[in-house]
Amino acid sequence: MKKFPPKLISFNLIFIVTVLFISPLYAQDCIILLHGLARSNTSMEKMATALDTAGYQVINKDYPSRQYTIEKLADQTISSALGDCPKNSTIHFVTHSMGGILVRQYLSKHQLANLGRVVMLGPPNKGSEVVDKLHNVPGFKLINGPAGMQLGTGRLSVPNRLGPADFELGIIAGTRSINLILSSMLPNPDDGKVSVENTKLEGMQDHIAMPVTHPFMMQNKDVITQVIHFLKQGVFDKSGN
Predict the structure, then answer these.
(1) Residue 12: what pLDDT?
(2) How confident is the model at residue 1 (pLDDT cuts 50, 70, 90)?
(3) Residue 12: inside a domain, yes or no?
(4) Range(s) of the domain holding residue 44
């Protein structure tokens, strides 16, 4: 049997240990998924599976969206999610609806040196007129909680006081609705909860409108494809438009 020099054996062992136990902690980008108001992380499972298959480490974070204010939810939820990501990994966010506002709130107070790209699906970046018209209706606060009351377009609007994006942001808006009553409260086109115009944010890198509805856009295969494209390229694929 051929014998190898001790130094070569030692080097090989170090290399193997590094590859198996250390490299994964640094090599993989980490994506934090944040669901929307009155939803749970199960709504993001299809997205999580696709991103995992694409090679990302995925943190599909659940949080009590109806219990606290946007400020408290952002600080508690994102701080916890960041702790679940590998050390020194690049941090990306993929959010649905209010999840995007949590990211904006958190980044308005904290700097992330290792921040990568952010993709928001149907975010009420300029608030939603639905909240303006329904916030005084009995039961609205009970159903949507303190954070839901902060998503309008008026003086209590958290999204409208957070300022422009100073990070690499792509936004996907929906143009179809399954709730014609709510759509009647919104400027067209809309996704049943947010108008396409109100998803936009000054400073965004790219924006695309797709024929999907607000409640289910994060499970649409074409939306998922666009999310991955933006995470990799920094722009959406508009070649088919």
Answers:
(1) 59
(2) low
(3) no
(4) 29-233
